[in-house]
Amino acid sequence: MSQKPTTGGVPSPPKKIELFSNTYFGACMVGGIIACGPTHTSVTPLDLVKCRRQVDSKIYSSNLSAWRMIYAKEGIRGIFFGWSPTFVGYSFQGAGKYGFYEVFKYWYGDRFFPGANKTVVYLGASASAEFLADIMLCPWEAIKVRMQTTLPPYASKLGEGWGKIVEKEGIAGLYKGLYPLWARQIPYTMVKFATFEETVSAIYKSLGKPKDAYNALQQTGVSFAGGYIAGVGCAVVSHPADVMVSKLNADRKAGEAAMGAISRIYGNIGFMGLWNGLGVRIAMIGTLTAFQWLIYDTFKVYLGECLTMISYPQPEVINLEQSESINVKEFHESYV
């Protein structure tokens, strides 16, 4: 049986994390990595087919036929082709998305504008966080898209893809999709956070009881449902930009200006072409968002938080080993 560490025969105080400290924000970044890296990697088969159909709508007749064709030729490795840049890129992005979100939420809310509308704070914090997170994601997304959308593949491994792009186009080649990535991900993340907030609040109001009246499994179910609904909204809002990101990384000519390339590509595919692969992306993003909120909620409970998305009161510390000391009712009332 494990014993608590002692100092001179006296039990040491339980480990604590100071709220809004660098350690706290660092822990939130770790939670973002855990929530985003593995989940995005797990849906690589959907992402692979989605990207290829965005670039060439006639390449496969359906998603099932696509997977059958890929599996027949390349096996399970072909189905998960592009998983490595996906895992690395979205781990970086998750760290930025969730970690910086907590930073900006604190700055825009409790620190500088304590009386601000919560939804405005959520929108501003999520947009600011995603702006930085996309800079972290962009090089890996560029490699992933080129690997997945060119046949034969542009590169078979992450390192090979990085080397080829840098050799031919320099570091700038890794960031040529940054503007459309911002156009895709910033609205996506704003909808993701704000819609999740409102959806979860609406679910509990419709149930007629506060969150703390339900057990952990029931709360998890609400978080998952709220995350899935938010994911559907994210997918629809950001899909045209997602198509353009795929097209730009696959078809932008060397030295071509970003807006010139976008105008040329749009002229080729038209408005309806911006919606290629929407059904697959709704399924992918809905599932992703639901599981990400589920994982992030669980991680923050481990940190000692009672709720995930709240305007926090101002205690100085969170007790990791005695989280029951946190006033759940007070936290819930500040949330709703």
Which helices and strands occur, and which strands form pairs?
Blueprint: E1 6-7, E2 10-11, E3 16-18, H1 22-42, H2 44-55, H3 63-79, H4 83-111, H5 118-149, H6 158-169, H7 178-207, H8 216-251, H9 258-273, H10 278-303, E4 317-319, H11 328-335
Mean pLDDT: 82
Helix and strand sequence: EEEHHHHHHHHHHEH
Largest sheet: 2 strands, antiparallel
Report the uncertain regions: 10-14, 305-336
Question: Describe it for me?
Answer:
- By secondary structure, this protein is mainly alpha-helical.
- Helix content is 71%, strand content 3%.
- The chain contains eleven helices and four strands; from the N terminus they run βββααααααααααβα.
- It has helices spanning 22-42, 44-55, 63-79, 83-111, 118-149, 158-169, 178-207, 216-251, 258-273, 278-303, 328-335; strands at 6-7, 10-11, 16-18, 317-319.
- Strands 1-2 form a two-stranded antiparallel ribbon.
- A hairpin with a 2-residue loop joins strand 1 (6-7) and strand 2 (10-11).
- It is globular, with a radius of gyration of 22 Å.
Q: Would you summarize the structure shown here?
A:
The chain has helices at 22-42, 44-55, 63-79, 83-111, 118-149, 158-169, 178-207, 216-251, 258-273, 278-303, 328-335; strands spanning 6-7, 10-11, 16-18, 317-319. The protein is mostly helical and 336 residues long.
